[in-house]
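Progress against Task 2.4 (sequence-to-structure conversion) is shown through the following example record, which the project officer requested during the mid-term review.
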Amino acid sequence: MLSDVLETAKLQNKPVFLDLNAKWCTACKLMQRDVYNNDETASFFNSNFVNYMVDVESGEGPDLKLIYDINILPTLLWLDSKGRVLLKKEGACYNSELMKQAQNALKNAIK
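Structure tokens generated for the chain above:
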């Protein structure tokens, strides 16, 4: 549940990285296979964020899709520990772009 993830983020003093996707989404599958399995990317994200992946069609996914106005999959959100959006990226991205977006989100979190 996102509420548990936000609580963990608060305790660890880290922002949240939220990947909103769907099982049928090809771009989502490619990111999961090619991007999240990259050792450098995974290490950076695990060190700097509380990471959470949600299928928008099951569980709390439909609610989060409405709350965060998700129209494109995947949508990548970086949130503060209260669930406020620090940065939103619609559509897939690969390692270098994802790292750049993540660094921008970290800068926004410090403000």
